[in-house]
Write a structure and sequence with these properties.
It comes from Actinoplanes sandaracinus. By secondary structure, the protein is an all-alpha fold. 65% of the residues lie in helices and 0% in strands. It folds into 2 domains: 149 residues, no CATH class; 167 residues, no CATH class.
Length: 346
């Protein structure tokens, strides 16, 4: 559980009853009860429980991807159960994919979350080494995958931040052929093709807008232009050491009529159809950020309420408010609920 101030300070700020404050615990944030149970079972060596959970997702690619990701997070910390699975079934495509995702997670941990200027040569070297290893494992997962599964192609894209293996165009095209509106596939692609990494604003917005236009109402990918605008604002207004005018400039950008019109239309389209069974936390977090940047308090509160008590704060909170993601999320949650931050919360 992560809290920013003592309980008495929150009582002071709210002047009475304690609301359900956000708690930043990725394990508590799991909304899938099947996954909560399976996670504990694989931790004690029952890899068959993990195998069944993935197989039960069948061709619901967003649900399958979430379950693979959760199991990969477990394997990143302790992969004894995964080693047993791979030994028993060395050609199982799901086990191969979890291994690739776990090694990719270790690559990110090795690099750390600091800027390039604050990342050591040793960290970069380990990041590139593990990314290359993850790319090899992702290729094996692709080779073993069924003919319709898009997830290995998303994982291969994710390795390209630190590895030169693979062809972006080929991998992205095949992933889209298998699932034309896949959220995480397109998210990886637009991030790789943003100006911060290996592309440009134009390439990034093209990827985001093309899928948002093509995806049906209710699909999570219709909200990808939000994160494209976050990436744009980061590069243009919030790059480098934080200063207060970054937030002012970012807010002015999101208040531009053409930006608001595009993003409000995306949100309307998202609200207009069914969302499927996969968790919505990532896209609701984008919406909450947008509403806070544009000072739409009632809309922000409604989305914070949807997110609930146990959350994972996206990196964009830290970009624009100049503090840790969780601190910035909590500060905006207080504002959306009509309360001052209170003592100790700036």
């Amino acid at each position: 559980m992560f809290l920013f101030t003592p309980r008495f300070a929150i009582r002071y700020a709210f002047g009475g009853e304690m609301p359900e404050m956000p708690e930043f615990d990725p394990e508590l944030a799991l909304t899938d009860p099947i996954l909560r149970a399976v996670r504990e079972q694989v931790r004690v060596g029952n890899w068959r429980a993990g195998k069944k959970a993935i197989e039960d997702a069948d061709a619901d690619w967003p649900v399958r991807r979430v379950r693979l990701s959760v199991l990969a997070d477990v394997a990143e910390q302790d992969d004894m159960w995964l080693r047993a699975w791979l030994e028993a079934e060395p050609s199982d495509p799901d086990a191969a994919l979890i291994e690739a995702m776990a090694v990719h997670g270790r690559a990110g941990t090795a690099r750390g979350g600091a800027s390039a200027a604050d990342t050591s040569e040793e960290q970069f070297a380990e990041f590139h080494r593990l990314s290359a290893s993850a790319a090899q494992l992702a290729q094996r997962a692709i080779d073993l995958a069924g003919p319709a599964d898009p997830v290995p192609f998303e994982v291969m894209l994710s390795t390209m931040f630190g590895s030169t293996r693979g062809s972006f165009e080929r991998v992205f095209a095949e992933g889209r052929r298998r699932d034309p509106h896949n959220l995480h596939l397109h998210l990886q692609a637009l991030t790789l093709r943003c100006e911060k990494w290996y592309g440009s604003h134009e390439e990034m917005f093209t990827i985001a807008r093309d899928v948002a236009m093509a995806a049906p109402p209710g699909h999570r990918s219709v909200l990808l232009p939000l994160t494209a605008h976050f990436e744009y604002a980061l590069r243009e207004f919030a790059w480098g050491a934080f200063h207060r005018k970054q937030l002012t400039q970012t807010r002015k950008y999101f208040l531009r009529p053409e930006v608001r019109q595009e993003l409000e239309q995306c949100i309307v389209k998202f609200r207009a159809g069914p969302h499927g069974a996969a968790p919505l936390g990532i896209v609701l977090d984008w919406m909450a950020t947008y509403y806070c940047l544009t000072q739409q308090r009632a809309q922000a509160k409604a989305v914070f309420d949807e997110l609930g008590q146990h959350v994972t704060a996206g990196v964009q909170w830290g970009w624009f408010w100049g503090s840790g993601e969780e601190h910035a999320y909590f500060k905006n949650w207080l504002w959306a609920n009509g309360r001052p931050p209170g003592p100790g919360v700036r």
